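hi! just following up on the protien thing from before. the input was this:
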Amino acid sequence: MMIKRHTWEHLLITVLRTAIGWHFLYEGLIKLFADSWSAAPFLDNTYGFLAAFYHGLAASPIVLQIVDLLNIWGLILIGTALFTGMCIRLAALSGALLLTLYYFAYPPFGVSLLGGDGTLFIVDQLVIEAFALLFIFFHKKKGYGLDMLIKRWQEAKKQAPSTIDENGRPANMRRELLKNLAALPLLGVMGWGSYRSRKRYETDASTGATIRINRVALSELKGELPKGKIRHQELSRLIMGGNLLGGWAHARDLLYAESLFKAYNTEKKIVETLMLCEQAGINTINIGFPTIPVMVKYKKLTGSKIKVICQVGIREKSPDIFEDVSVAIDNGIDIIQLQGNWCDWLVRDNRTDVIAQIMERIRSQGYVAGMGAHTVDSLIICEEKGIVPDYYMKTMHHDNYWSAHPRENRKPFEVDGHLNADHNLFHDNCFCPFPDRTIEFVNRVKVPVMGFKVLAAGAIEPKDGFNWAFENGADFICVGMFDFQVVGDVNICIDTLQNLKNRKREWFA
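and the predicted 3d structure came back as:
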């Protein structure tokens, strides 16, 4: 019975050790064979109390090269040692330390937001694997492998001559060889299978080592993104738009786009994108009201200081027209803005008194009060009635693109209204329907202006759209971006601001 229990104990530890070893080895080999793999994206996006340490590793090209080599070959050597049962204690301890470094790069503390493999809080797969390695390190038995084979050989050599066969080898050595080298054929089979899979599919999408997007690296930033002030709030000239993160897509007649955006921008991806924005110099995001919970979790998780502009409206079934404003304040929002659709609808329905009340309530609570609109008539009518916000947020784009419907067919308040099947009428395709009137309005008002939809929801190139908005009077631009667009858009914004030639309006922020 003791022999049987002893055998099973060795077997179970061997299975545990080789499983972890294969995980390490495979991750290392995938990184080794992936084209131009680097730990830079992993290090650049880290957060938590050790974030500065990880960012520092990525900041120096020489240090980063060393980190990449240590990462790749550390995984390969630790994995090989664990799988073959060679230098087990050293490999187990080294593996636990490496997993600890991975863990504290993205610690699941406070909020379970990064749970790509499930909902995680404190304990994730890294913790479990690290504890398993520590168990192997401290446990007396290490399972079958090269270490045990060498140990058995040495023990047999010290025993009586009768234990040595006619060839000078310890007796029963064949059985010892079979038990302790059994993992090697398995390693060959698994290695061959992974090689065939990689040759067939070119890259292995199941590991983060090879999931790379062709984005401009933070190291390629061209400088510091300029800022401006609205009252006491200092904002980057380029502001992150919240539509793509919230899953709203102005996609004309592409029915799948909204679902695609939601599938891509998971909460984990949102966190990565926002951290990248902040590291690139974007210190402000403008969100729709439903995105408040995500931003609250993000700021709690990372300790972020990003300024959040929240768009509010009114709830038709609620007797309290200030309910959204109160919720925004209770959730720590920095700036509150009447949402563009609601401004358009309230003006259209002759309810400008509600707009005045909302502006007053926001200001009375000590907050910057913004007013958004798609139709310039909304802002003109409010101005005529003496309702002037701390800043305007106005759609600002030209109409020199293919899907814009003819000017003569455009109507006030049609944006986000009825979608027409007639290509000559509005169909989620033009968001600044009267650009000339918008330019005229923007250039005569004396408060800051934040231009949005400056790319007409992807119909205009960033260089063109950014330049048009800034030259025609925008003090800030709000742009929806995927993570792989962030650094490139920041660079375009920096270049645009440095080379403006035809701006006539003074800066009001």
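The chain is about 50% helix and 10% strand.
Residues 111-116, 201-214 have pLDDT under 50 and may be disordered.
cheers
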